[in-house]
TrEMBL record:
Belongs to the universal stress protein A family. InterPro entries: Rossmann-like_a/b/a_fold, Universal_stress_UspA, UspA. Gene3D superfamilies: HUPs. It comes from Tomitella cavernea. This is Universal stress protein. Residues 14-150, 163-297 form the UspA domain. It comes from the Bacteria. Keywords: ATP-binding, Nucleotide-binding.
Length: 302
């Protein structure tokens, strides 16, 4: 959520973690557009993450570290140029080079950020790879929303003009994701599509004559409408379209995400438990979401 709270967060703002890959460049530019939309500072960071060869000493070790730093500095320079291409000249942009592995470095800084933005894969990862270890760790152990930008190279016309889409399941764990999606829909002047799944079990073909599906559907639709009423009062300018589905939500979310500007889900939902790495829905979407995906951690988990 884009909140102006505290000096540290005001300094970090939107945090883009880069590594020199094409995916990271697109993520940095997308982060800059978000920072511009919400009038937030932009921080771009890169970690010197490769280990120094064992046995390296003296000038060899120094040369190796200098080479690593040089690569990170070039990555930061390219990312900053990509970001400034969509920002006003006076917009605050800061670059940071972290010494050491990226996961602990980003986790430490991300606590003071509004949002952490990454590409869907880094250097050396294939297009078919799942979300990398850095992304998984940030979602599992960080406390800020994480945006994963897939296959976007920086052309604003490819951002989409469709809705913001959010997946909910009726649990309180979804409230932060719902609030985030409403803030984004309002800022973008977009419609919000709320996809509510009242079961994460595939029910197609299930022989359960004692269950009256239409009755359950009507009940869940009423529950969703009631839960959204308070949010609609807070965001009166946002048109909310809702859909209730009765099986695993991934395919429904992906259907809505085809022309979406943004897809938002919670870290875990009904049936999840504290300490779970990544919920099944968010994990599946990390593999397949065609638009930028934001996973919002529930504050009560910490």
């Amino acid at each position: 959520m884009m909140r102006h709270a505290g000096n540290a967060r005001a300094q970090v703002g939107v945090l883009a973690a880069v590594d020199g890959s094409v995916a990271a460049l697109g993520a940095a530019r997308w982060a800059a557009l978000l920072a511009r939309r919400h009038d937030r500072p932009l921080t771009i960071g890169c970690a010197v993450q490769l280990p120094v060869p064992s046995g390296a000493a003296g000038s060899t070790r120094t040369e190796f570290l200098d080479a690593l730093r040089g690569r990170c500095e070039r990555a930061l320079g390219r990312a900053e140029s990509a970001a400034r291409g969509v920002l006003d000249a006076e917009h605050p942009v800061r670059t940071v080079l972290w010494e050491g592995p990226p996961i602990p470095a980003i986790l430490e800084v991300s606590g003071d950020a509004d949002l952490v933005v990454l590409g869907d894969r880094g250097l050396g990862e294939s297009p078919q790879s799942a979300a990398g270890s850095v992304t998984s760790a940030l979602i599992a152990y960080g406390d800020r929303p994480v945006a994963v930008v897939r296959g976007w190279t920086g052309a604003e016309e490819n951002l989409g003009s469709g809705p913001v889409v959010v997946g909910v399941d009726g649990s309180a764990h979804c409230n932060p994701a719902l609030e985030f999606s409403l803030i984004e829909a309002q800022a973008r002047g977009a419609e919000l599509a709320v996809v509510h799944a009242w079961s994460d079990v595939p029910l197609t073909g299930l022989d359960a004559p004692h269950l009256q599906w239409e009755t359950v559907q009507q009940r869940e639709d009423a529950v969703l409408a009631e839960s959204l009423a308070g949010w609609q009062e807070q965001f009166p300018g946002v048109t909310i379209r809702r859909e209730v589905v009765h099986d695993r939500p991934v395919r429904h979310l992906l259907r809505h995400a085809d022309d979406a500007q943004l897809l938002v889900v919670g870290h875990r939902g009904r049936g999840g438990f504290t300490g779970m790495m990544v919920g099944s829905t968010s994990r599946a979407l990390l593999h397949a979401a065609p638009c930028p995906l934001v996973v919002v951690r529930d504050a009560v988990e910490h």
